[in-house]
Specification:
The protein has 655 residues and is mainly α. Helix content is 61%, strand content 6%. It contains 25 helices and 9 strands. It has helices spanning 15-29, 31-49, 56-69, 72-98, 101-122, 128-139, 144-157, 161-176, 189-198, 207-211, 227-248, 254-274, 280-294, 300-315, 322-336, 342-359, 365-379, 383-407, 441-457, 489-496, 506-513, 517-528, 574-603, 608-618, 625-637, and strands spanning 471-477, 482-488, 503-505, 535-538, 549-552, 562-564, 605-607, 641-643, 650-653. The strands form 3 sheets. It has a 3-stranded mixed beta sheet with strand order 1-2-6. Strand 1 (471-477) and strand 2 form a beta hairpin. Helix 2 (31-49) packs parallel to helix 4 (72-98). The longest helix is centred in the C-terminal third of the chain and has 30 residues, at 574-603. The chain is elongated.
């Protein structure tokens, strides 16, 4: 039965409430009973954590009783959270040395699930937040650095997406709790418990978030990382930096450097998207690491990226679809965006583009234009690169008109030599050093005829012949069989001498052709020491002396009808690369000079510090302040500006 309070008996409690009050008073007067209840419950929970079976209904009944009496927090929850802190602090210290990182994370995941289920099955719901917070603190938060050192790099190297996602998600939960990361394991458990309880445990996380024990993809991309996830981001940055520097600094592997960096970036971006939530903060950390790596060799990376693009545009599809080729070029562009010295890339790209266009080595003009479009998107319109394409197109029309004209010229009407010419605008194309060459009469006549034809149409233009990039296709008659040889113009001029001579010395060849030094030596070695040896060299060797004898190889045979002999002739030397780089440096000097004059012309007077700051914002390539100081001194000497008479760090523009 029960008794209800009657009107006028305000001080009389209902029977149930009165019974609870009396029971609470009895417990308060007998601390040993409350302690035994608490100790018994804690022992049962410990045994379950150790793997034993327990009577869940008994725990639920006792917890419900303590909650109903109103002593749940004092008698059970406070000591329970304290013992939880001791238990998991001890367990984590033991397991972190014996388990690898993935195994430890799976263990933590199981523990969190078990503790959440414990609350659902037998404890008061108010215990949920501080219990999960205490568990996360001692299993995860206090060990973040140790766990990252233990196996983070290995997980990244092996692309262990699931394990990395678990790591990220678990530490995302810790961050949501707003708990300090560096809490010593030896901290007073009561203090830890109180901090968790007063702080509300998991803060503003909702109940559904607490049930999300099994990690996968972190929901949403946080705009701000907590301390633990920030540590993971830093570790990822270090991993990318270390892996990238190994690629960039690997000796003798420049040829594969760009493809390896592209592969590294693709792998890491996959981890960012699939394991680390795809947030901008983590993506930026990866981007910063790659930028530092790509620019660690200063100008070399820009050169190698240009050469990699050259290889892609030469080979073209080779069994790949348009989408695959476009994806390859786009992947390279992601590295291009990171390099500081884009002018180095441009110089080498332009040089290689010139060779592809002039020697017909582009796999596809559509691919070439696609690449130009990508560069235009990144850097704006480049009139020089677009001008190169226009020159090639206009040259085709010019050659067609010339051939019609040549057939009407009596001296050339019956000639079996066909001339094809590229008329190039000097400002658009890479600089090519002039080399002396004496043409045979047949070629010289064609040369003069074209010059007269072109100048007759464009009287104000001046033609300068560039022989070093010229190529020819000739028919060679050997006793075994006729062959079609693809040669450079230098090789052609040398071989034509053997129409009238079976053997010649290097000195004879030099006198007849005008070729000297490196050009002569490379040409002769390509003809006599390459795979297709149409000449014999006596004595044998890889050097050329002026008395060395070169003999027409009458016994030359080859299974192919068309043979390209250009391995040595087109091989790019370190000296040529250095010349290209040095030309860029000269152009940089001019650009720095122009920027200094432009700034001072606008401001009229400026301090040294402000001038340097302006230059940092305007120049598009890396530079040292010492280099800027030299350019300033040079402009002072040339009287473009002057120092203030009373303040040496102030400059005035001289009109």
């Amino acid at each position: 039965g029960y008794v209800l309070a009657q009107p006028g008996t305000a001080n009389v409690l209902p029977l149930w409430d009165l019974s609870l009050r009396l029971f609470r008073a009895a417990l308060a007067s007998r601390p040993s009973v409350a302690a035994r209840i608490s100790t018994g419950l804690l022992d049962v929970v410990r045994r379950e954590r150790d793997g034993d079976s327990i009577d869940v209904s008994l725990v639920h009944s006792l917890a419900s009783m303590l909650s109903a009496v109103g002593v749940y927090a004092k008698v059970f929850e406070v000591p329970f959270l304290s013992s939880t802190a001791h238990y998991f602090a001890s367990e984590s210290a033991r397991l972190i040395d014996s388990m690898d990182l993935p195994t430890y994370l799976r263990h933590v995941e199981a523990r969190l699930s078990s503790e959440a289920n414990r609350v659902t099955a037998s404890l008061d719901a108010s215990t949920r937040r501080p219990l999960i917070a205490t568990t996360e603190r001692h299993l995860l938060a206090t060990h973040v650095q140790a766990l990252l050192v233990k196996g983070f790099d290995a997980l990244c190297s092996e692309d262990r997406v699931v394990d990395l996602a678990r790591l990220w998600s678990l530490y995302g939960r810790v961050d949501a709790n707003g708990l300090p990361i560096n809490v010593p394991v030896s901290s007073t458990p009561e203090l830890v418990t109180c901090t968790a309880a007063r702080g509300g445990g998991v803060g503003n996380a909702d109940e559904a978030a607490l049930d999300r024990i099994v990690p996968g993809v972190t929901p949403g991309a946080a705009s701000v990382l907590g301390p633990a996830q920030d540590c993971i981001k830093t570790a990822l940055n270090r991993f990318v930096m270390h892996a990238g520097k190994e690629i960039v600094n690997a000796e003798g592997k420049d040829a594969s450097m760009v493809s390896s960096l592209v592969s590294l970036r693709a792998r890491v971006e996959g981890l960012v998207q699939n394991a680390f939530g795809g947030g901008e903060i983590v993506s930026r950390a990866v981007r910063d690491a790659l930028e530092a790596v790509v620019n660690s060799r200063q100008n070399k990376t820009g050169e190698l990226i240009a050469k990699y693009v050259d290889g892609v545009l030469k080979t073209g599809h080779k069994g790949r679809t348009d989408e695959e080729v476009d994806a390859t070029l786009e992947a390279v562009m992601t590295l291009f965006r990171l390099i500081h010295g884009k002018d180095i890339f441009e110089a080498f790209y332009k040089k290689d583009l010139a060779k592809r266009l002039l020697h017909g080595r582009s796999a596809s003009l559509d691919l070439e234009k696609m690449m130009i479009s990508k560069l235009k998107t990144e850097c704006g319109t480049n009139n020089k690169l677009e001008g190169m394409f226009r020159d090639v197109e206009v040259s085709r029309e010019t050659v067609r008109s010339f051939r019609t004209h040549a057939r009407s010229v009596a001296s050339l009407g019956t000639s079996d030599v066909e001339l094809s010419v590229f008329v190039l605008t000097h400002a658009y194309w890479p600089h090519v050093p002039q080399a002396p060459l004496r043409l045979p009469q047949t070629l010289s006549d064609l040369h003069d005829t074209f010059k007269q034809f072109y100048v007759g149409k464009h009287s104000r233009r001046k033609l300068t012949w560039q022989y070093s990039n010229a190529s020819t296709t000739v028919r060679a008659r050997f006793p075994a069989a006729d062959k079609i040889l693809s040669l450079s113009l230098y090789q052609t001029v040398v071989l034509l001498l053997f129409n009238d001579n079976d053997e010649l010395t290097a000195d004879n060849i030099s006198s007849a052709t005008g070729l000297v030094d490196a050009d002569l030596h490379r040409t002769l070695l390509s003809l006599a020491c390459g795979k297709a040896r149409v000449l014999h060299k006596r004595p044998k060797g890889n050097t050329v002396g002026k008395d060395d004898l070169f003999v027409w190889n009458k016994g030359f045979t080859n299974r192919q009808v068309r043979i390209r002999i250009n391995a040595i002739q087109v091989k790019e030397s370190a000296a040529e690369d250095l010349q290209t780089t040095e030309r860029v440096f000269v152009e940089r000097h001019c650009e720095v000079d122009a920027a200094i004059v432009r700034v001072l012309k606008t401001r009229r007077t400026l301090t040294h510090a402000n001038l340097i700051a302006e230059l940092y914002s305007q120049l598009r390539f890396p530079f040292k302040v010492a280099d800027l100081n030299k350019r300033i001194e040079s402009l002072i000497e040339r009287e473009f500006l002057e120092r203030d008479a009373s303040a040496s760090q102030t400059y005035h523009y001289l009109a």
